[in-house]
Amino acid sequence: MLDTLMGIVGGSPEMLALFIGFGLxxxxxxxxxxxxxxxLVTPALLMLDYPxxxxxGSGMAFVFGTAVIATLKHHDLGQVDYKLGxxxxxxxxxxxxxxxxxxxxxxxLGLADGIISVVYVxxxxxxxxxxxxxALKGDDxxxxxxxxxxxxxxxxxxxxxxxxxxxxxxxxxxxxxRGDVRxxxxxxxxxxxxxxxxSGFLGVGGGFIRMPAMIYAIGVPTPVAVGTDLFEIVxxxxxxxxxxxxxxxxDLSIVAPLLFGSALGARIGSAATAIVDSDDIKIYFGGxxxxxxxxxxIGEIGTYLGSELLETIGLFLVIGAAVxxxxxxxxxxxxxLRATRSQTTVAAD
Amino acid sequence: MPGLEVPTWDPETALLxxxxxxxxxxxxxxxxxxxxxxxxxxxxxxxxxxxxx
Lengths: 349, 53
Known about the structure:
The complex is a heterodimer of chains A (349) and B (53). With 349 residues, chain A is mostly helical. Chain A has one domain. Chain A contains 13 helices and 2 strands, in the order αααααααββαααααα. In chain A, strands 1-2 form a two-stranded antiparallel sheet. With 53 residues, chain B is an all-alpha fold. Classes of the chains: A mainly alpha (349), B mainly alpha (53).
């Protein structure tokens, strides 16, 4: 059995265990926060010395598989706007292709690893800082508001920025979306292209930027943004994976074990959202992204100086940060469950 | 647009992506069944039962 698995994944048992375990952690984070998990895969693969096109391509194929699983769940909850999703797919497809072509162009120049890592450092660092700041302020803008799950779509207020965009940009054709949102199809296309470009360049789903963009630029309610984003990632991730796969960038020996672990992790993470308030852990999430950016930076300095020690420190830091946050989610969930259990027992007595 | 590449039909790549899609669906269904079968027992073991998670 183990030999068959080894044959499929084509690696050592240690690598198989590492990928399944890492997938479990990433899935747990994705299931709990609804974003951000895939962000860790590409830098980790880069630090494991995979070529940039394989790291990005396999990262994207992993995102595709994870999105399929998550969309099946959100479809059951009625949180997918298919009209919005279909319009976004067109813009995202072009964006991904431009981003993907940029990676191969940079690889020809021998600059891909360095530039992708630098963009990661700034993006992870920037988002990490933003989420940590919001968490310290106690605001709700750094991820999914778990308390809002049961709210009716008509109860969601459209952000001021979105209202202004809807009133200013009225280039036909206009589209009516779920939650009575009316917006120009060009606004949707522009959002889709920009996020697709990042997605293709970095091999990420793009949800960390597309979700806020759908809420603040298009004005759709948060649950619809989450569900539609996942539906869209299925297509964009599928097309992106196909294009990378044609160039030999998708390695099944990486994707299969990652997905095996993440599917289980996503279930645990999703179940935890019903028990733990995300605000409790959001600060750890911001810290994890910051640690990730520092890790990629250290790894790059290690590569530049030819220091294996620095590269190893970078790898352990990025994986360690994700493991700590995933552990914090599991610990907080169990503690909340035990507290609820004790209260129920006391009340019954 | 310069540098753009139109996706062409490649059975080998389609099989690769199809395998990932199939794995995702099997895992979704498989873990769902596992959750229903093992979930309550696991929760009972971890928190002493009586939870809705």
